[in-house]
Amino acid sequence: MSLPQSVDATLALLGKGRYVADRSLATALYLALAQGRPLFLEGEAGVGKTEIAKVVSEVLGRRLVRLQCYEGLDVASAVYEWNYAAQMIEIRLAEAEGVHDREQLGTDIFNQRFLIKRPLLQALESDLAGPPVLLIDELDRTDEPFEAYLLELLSDYQITIPEIGTIRADSPPITIITSNRTREIHDALKRRCFYYWVDYPDAKRELEILRLKAPDVSARLSAEVVGFVQALRGADLFKAPGVAETIDWASALHQLDIIELTPEAMDNTLGVLLKYQDDIVKVRGSEAAKMLDQVKSEIAAQPVGG
């Protein structure tokens, strides 16, 4: 499938992948695709940043190359490393055959036959379906030296390997970078990207997401779940629930045959929604019951079909 040719087409592409996006996100994605620029998505965990790359890959029929970042990530894990065991075998075989030309031997063992390609190098490879989607996920978990290493890749879509030279992509991959903003990413990297802040959805959009992702959950329960989650995000919590937690919670309640929220049902399942004990203790009991009463009052006050 070819790249979308307009913002409306980009919205349709995301919709085909069951991703509910607002127009500003579709605009940022369209511009990144049209101009071949990386898209840097920042926002709280669980708001759907990673899902965007998955949907683009799925709907366009492109290979997804994912680099999951973590503290201590290095070139050997992210870009390439040499197959030292195979190189040693090659050296022993050459010695057994009486080959003593070191320069020739060096050329023999430092070629792509012995190169183990990691995600960033894999993303530069040609593909019959078109350039792959490169997802650099949670970049904020790495350190600044690795950020600096990415600058050449994001500027020119090339990687320099000292022993064999520079490897360039025939066509640049569709690159999406995500960050949960646990630390600031350097300006030099951000300048190479288009930027978009992915926020929590409003109640209307979150309800639409829930209908798509958990269609078996009743309309009543979905409305109560979304209303309660929206209220929680306004509370003073260590970690507010993301959209992923909303979907998980609604699905869990449905699995328990719960058709409407009650204080007991909430207290028994808050661990699906909240991931920190301090938050659970703060919300459980009378506080949750009070929030639920408010949510149900607001739902009851809405016009029929609203």
How much helix, percentage-wise, in residues? 40-55%
Compute the number of strand runs: 9
CATH superfamily (homologous) name of the largest domain: P-loop containing nucleotide triphosphate hydrolases
- Alpha-carbon distance between the two ends: 37 Å
The strand order across the widest sheet is 2-5-8-1-9
- Shape annotation: elongated
Given as residue ranges, the uncertain stretches (5+ residues, pLDDT < 50) are none
CATH fold title of the largest domain: Rossmann fold
Strand content: 5-15%
Instruction: Identify the CATH class of the largest domain.
Output: Alpha Beta
Structural class: alpha/beta
Taking the sheet with the most strands, its summary is: 5 strands, parallel
Written as H for each helix and E for each strand, in order along the chain, the element string is: HHEHEHEHHEHEHEEEHEHHHHHH
CATH second-level architecture of the largest domain: 3-Layer(aba) Sandwich
Rg from alpha-carbon coordinates: 25 Å
Q: How much is the average pLDDT? A: 92
